[in-house]
What we know:
- The structure is a homodimer.
- Chain A has 14 helices and 17 strands.
- Chain A is of the alpha/beta class.
- Chain A has three domains: 2-171, Molybdenum Cofactor Biosythetic Enzyme, Chain A (3-Layer(aba) Sandwich), CATH 3.40.980.10; 175-252, Alpha-Beta Plaits; 257-413, Alpha-Beta Complex (Maf protein), CATH 3.90.950.
- In chain A, the strands form four sheets. In chain A, strands 2-1-3-8-7-6 form a six-stranded mixed β-sheet, sandwiched between helices. The first copy, chain A, has a five-stranded mixed β-sheet with strand order 14-13-15-16-17, with helices on both faces.
- In chain A, helix 9 (257-268) packs parallel to helix 14.
- The radius of gyration of chain A is 28 Å and the shape is elongated.
- Chains A and B meet through helix 2, strand 2, helix 3, helix 10 and strand 14 of A and helix 2, strand 2, helix 3, helix 10 and strand 14 of B.
Amino acid sequence: MKAEILAVGTELLLGDIVNTNAQYISKKLAALGIDVHFQTVVGDNEERLSQAVKNAFGRADLIITSGGLGPTEDDITKETCTKYFGKKFVYDEKALEMLKGFFAKLNRKMTDNNLKQVRVPEGSIVMYNKNGTAPGIIVEDGNKILIMLPGPPRELIPMFEEYAEPFLAAKQEYTFVSRVLRVSKIGESELENRLIDLIDNQTNPTIATYVKKFEAVVRLTAKAKSKDEANDIIKPVADEIYRRLGSDLYAEGDTTISEVTCGMLMERGLTAAVSESCTGGLLASRFTDIPGISKIFVEGDVTYSNDAKMRRLGVKRETLEKYGAVSHEVAEEMAYGIAKAAKTDIGLSTTGIAGPGGGTPEKPVGMVFIGMYYKGKVKTKELHMVGNRERIREKTVDSVFDWLRRTILAEEEV
Amino acid sequence: MKAEILAVGTELLLGDIVNTNAQYISKKLAALGIDVHFQTVVGDNEERLSQAVKNAFGRADLIITSGGLGPTEDDITKETCTKYFGKKFVYDEKALEMLKGFFAKLNRKMTDNNLKQVRVPEGSIVMYNKNGTAPGIIVEDGNKILIMLPGPPRELIPMFEEYAEPFLAAKQEYTFVSRVLRVSKIGESELENRLIDLIDNQTNPTIATYVKKFEAVVRLTAKAKSKDEANDIIKPVADEIYRRLGSDLYAEGDTTISEVTCGMLMERGLTAAVSESCTGGLLASRFTDIPGISKIFVEGDVTYSNDAKMRRLGVKRETLEKYGAVSHEVAEEMAYGIAKAAKTDIGLSTTGIAGPGGGTPEKPVGMVFIGMYYKGKVKTKELHMVGNRERIREKTVDSVFDWLRRTILAEEEV
Lengths: 414, 414
């Protein structure tokens, strides 16, 4: 099946918003094995929208639109796009009831222009909207399919997943299943080296590697007649990759290194506290992003000044004077100091030059020391990073979480 | 002039990346007074790209492409799009020199396929690339213009601004100038009420209001024969809006409430320290996002546990027991405690329920207390917010910065 995505909205043509819907739908169609040949954006203009629909059906079997289903004069997608099929419009009773319920719940009067939203082409499939007022619609005629979705992503995404995705999956002879394996600390080329024979011999599943900000990712995609069969095809390859990558493979699916590491601490009941200089609160805020973290996260100290490092963490004046704030020695005293002050199992520290100013030939921008107190011992590590202030701080925090994860795993192996 | 944006790249059709280039170019063209009627995305496929160019020139005078100018087999934009004009290709000497220099600097050997990038249609304008290897090209023939830009935003944006923008501006009879006024704390409808007569009578400049996460924004856009003239047209309207909004108008242009408030502290040499519970390090990290903040930012304490609140900030056990950690009284003692411990002019605090768990009927999710020590006095404020954990934490932090900004301004007025 060939598809075309048609986003409708003048705000897209003015650059007021970015077309994330096209990306979302494209990704979903790729996973379903449906080829997307064009994405088009057109304004709220009847003539140009008609032209776009005609063009698209001239070269594709499936059009998916987003936007223009609302109650205002500008919302012309439904009327304009279905002209192609020449269908009669009727009111959908269930959609009307839901619409009335929506306004009643908000204690707002429903104005008459809202009724327009629940008029649908006869014989179409109505996709009821739990997150807004405008239902979506699927029209199928001969070998042409038109799927119309509302514009706001918080309405479009759940509606696509509930209705459009199973509708399209049922039309596909094959199903596609993907697994995403997340790998920390090793670069894409080393990752490829370790998997090169698997990659060279790939057919089904396919194996693709990507590099993200902090991590590398391996995506395995299998094509089969059923989900179970696809899972069976992926499993031996995934198992082999797990075996080869060991603890470099830190998680699977949609997660992050901070989420994984915090999950490990919560599972084990290990309490933690952090002391930060260059990361300035980012490390603490990654911990506290996690709901329920208060069970194990006791305290974070952003000791930006030397005075605060001495006062709060017991870093010695001599250490600061002899080695400077950005040093193994200070990272060590910070990690020890925060663990002792907060009486936690784990103490973490960061101190470095995040830039853009403050670098010297000996201690350039991007030089960071991180420290860890765990099981009565303190260790430190020197990092060198490139990029702007934000990137250096983010990479430092990710490195701290990964180091802690590896440390806990290594201790458990002993 | 009518324009069409044509992004070339299979990775866009697979949903691997989002088309931010189209948004950027659309916004720029809107500011130049050039209408964009379509944005199209097409893969690295010669036949479909040719078809897209033909379609686009059938309905527009200007096509701007992004992507597909690189050295690989897949990079076909230049050859395919210029077929429309039927021009001969020649090597551009300056681009060739720059390309050689680029590889020399990286100490890498230049492979022959790179030469393809410096072949340009005869008589075209070459846009030299300071941030990558592929130059961009402007081809003009009769009343049709084709502007080809590289795909990576870090190359596309500076190239557009250096070459394409002045090239297009010179073709426009009118120029457009915008000013963006940022307003904190008041909603869009109240903002419209305060400006309603100006909005109703707008012609030139136009006045548009938008609501963002934390703030509202007023955009004034004037159309004139020159920038100076446009600025003169905007000025009296902007002055009137400044007068009406007073301190609710917190800044102009591309900035944030934390940047503005931190700037005020640095200008005045006011030192600050923060103590956080529900925001968990986010407030400190917003301070430390600002380069040079170490001059005035002394310390941040993420006192997540009650124990840390007592130990670090001197919050009294009785206060915690009598009022609970989420209360005016604890916010007050936290703000006072951190200012005294760090010996700063300003002490800030946050304590609240960020959710998703932890809410009760008396203290629901979204209830937050913030505290401020300034000039020997402590005050507190109760906030109620809706949204998820992330949104509640972010809105709390923005509110703290805005409250501090308003407090400093009010003190100075006395």
